[in-house]
Amino acid sequence: MAVSSNELELIEGMLRIPEGADPFPSLRQRFAHLVWTRCDAADVLEEPFRSIGPFDLHLLDGSDHCLRLTPEPDKATGVLLARRGGVS
Questions:
Q1: pLDDT digits (tens, 9 = 90+) for 26-58
Q2: Which label site among 12, 28, 32, 63 has the fewest CB atoms less than 10 Å from its CB?
């Protein structure tokens, strides 16, 4: 299932949080149909799909049984949430 533009707006809104808060559990619960993973932004070489607050949002495409980053929401089956300045 692809990530809709409405879902992207909701995800971005949930990432606008007070410093030090961890949105990851809420995001996984609210968007349980998507694959979620997180890491430190320094671990990702590719440009993010979007940057929101302290987070870089990368879209994941798992359609070929291997996850890869994609810039295309209509191909995204998941999200990689990369926190700048440390893992959340």
A1: 999 999 999 999 999 999 999 999 999 899 999
A2: 32
